[in-house]
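Backbone-to-sequence.
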């Protein structure tokens, strides 16, 4: 049985509590949140013990789930690792690159399980491509959200775009060679809308647009590769795969077109989408990694790499505005 301590029970923290309660082999030992407006409703609804300080809760659990605001990530992660506790921390990994490097060092030295909450890795639309070869040479991404004051403690890069940065780094598996970026602060003190171009050593190019001041929501990624197009709708949880010279398959709609190089067969398919609770799934993988001594699916290195690219983007934006 795994004893979990939850740190931060605001909007997202409550989702984590709901899911932990449904996961086998887990006991929620308690939670820590200094804000009464967050804590009191949780005590009343969940009947879970509220600890008065973070250190006391850590001393009473095996693993921590850190859903506190980003500025508190480093302090809580460092304390947990030094106390020998496994760590799940929401994205972004932490607030600064210096803090991120220290956490990577501590996590490596501790030999503890460390998972970063990049939840889109567990989106059913993305999971449906597990048997599809992904070798994109051009990627286009739009992640748009309506304005919400919650989350504006960090820029739109670290708030929204970092989801797509993590997915792209996971797919492309090549070093970043060049970044260009523009961003504008509209409703907060940090960029609320940004457009970014990332170039990789293998020739792949990714164009990303993220906004948290849009009138409508959108979370789409389009992958273009040799003889194929893959569209992923993270919001609607739909995936489309269009291939040239597609093999015959009863689940693929095909038709022929004439080209200068002869007849080509076009295949259009929509991979089956399983109903998946992404938050519950990522927490279950964290639990399984601890109990079965496996690597976490989104490691501290993954979190570090996504954060490193995000901060290079922020540096580019800051330089263009000077």
């Amino acid at each position: 049985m795994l004893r979990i301590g939850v740190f931060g029970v605001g909007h997202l923290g409550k989702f984590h509590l709901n899911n932990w309660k449904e996961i086998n082999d887990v006991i929620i030992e308690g939670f820590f949140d200094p804000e009464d407006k967050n804590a009191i409703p949780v005590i009343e609804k969940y009947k879970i013990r509220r600890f008065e300080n973070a250190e006391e809760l850590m001393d009473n659990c095996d693993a921590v789930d850190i859903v506190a605001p980003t500025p508190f990530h480093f302090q809580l992660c460092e304390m947990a690792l030094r106390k020998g506790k496994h760590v799940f921390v929401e994205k972004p990994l932490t607030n600064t690159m210096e803090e991120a490097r220290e956490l990577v060092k501590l996590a490596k030295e501790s030999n503890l399980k460390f998972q970063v909450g990049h939840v889109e890795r567990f989106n059913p639309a993305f999971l449906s491509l597990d048997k599809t070869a992904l070798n994109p040479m051009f990627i286009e991404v739009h992640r748009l959200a309506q304005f919400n004051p919650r989350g504006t403690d960090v820029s739109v890069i670290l708030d929204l775009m970092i989801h797509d940065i993590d997915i792209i780094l996971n797919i492309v598996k090549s070093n970043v060679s060049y970044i260009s970026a523009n961003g504008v602060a509209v409703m907060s003190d940090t960029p609320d809308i940004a457009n970014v171009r990332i170039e990789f050593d293998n020739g792949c190019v990714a164009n990303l647009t993220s906004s948290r001041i849009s009138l409508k929501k959108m979370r789409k990624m389009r992958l273009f590769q040799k003889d194929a197009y893959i569209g992923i709708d993270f919001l609607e949880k739909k995936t489309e795969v269009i291939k040239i010279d597609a093999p015959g398959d009863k689940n693929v709609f095909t038709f022929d077109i004439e080209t200068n190089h002869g007849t080509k067969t076009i295949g259009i398919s929509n991979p089956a989408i399983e109903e998946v609770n992404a938050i519950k799934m990522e927490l279950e993988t964290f639990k399984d990694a601890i109990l079965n001594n496996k690597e976490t699916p989104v490691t501290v290195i993954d979190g570090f790499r996504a954060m490193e690219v995000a901060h290079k983007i922020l540096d580019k934006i800051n330089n263009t505005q000077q």
